[in-house]
Amino acid sequence: MAAEQTHRDVVLRRLRRIEGQVRGLQRMVEEETYCIDVLTQVAATNAALQSCALALLDEHLNCCVTQAIVEGGEQARTKVDEASKAIARLVRA
């Protein structure tokens, strides 16, 4: 029976795939691949990074922020503010 993957394992697997995509982009440029094909792969890499960022944000909201809200106080306000700023950075990116 396979062991259950942790959120950390899932994120690391995604990041390794993205790392492979970036290495592939480097090879494409070195091999002077047609610009539009390289741009298509850049877009795919950006989408993969965004997906990874959203997964991290979701975990943060469901774990860190939720726990801080349950505990209340200034820590809750701080965690919500951090999450809000992270969302703003993602939207601008």
Automatic annotation (TrEMBL):
Which UniProt key words apply to this protein? Answer: Copper
The keyword Acyltransferase appears for this protein: no
Annotated protein name in UniProt: Metal-sensitive transcriptional regulator
Protein family? Belongs to the CsoR family.
CDD domains, per the entry: CsoR-like_DUF156 (cd10148)
Manganese keyword on record: no
In the record, what terms sit under GO molecular function?
DNA binding; metal ion binding
Coiled-coil annotated residue ranges, if any: none
Q: Which InterPro entries match?
A: Metal_Tscrpt_repr, Metal_Tscrpt_repr_sf
Species source reads: Streptomyces coeruleorubidus
Instruction: Supply one GO BP term.
Output: negative regulation of DNA-templated transcription
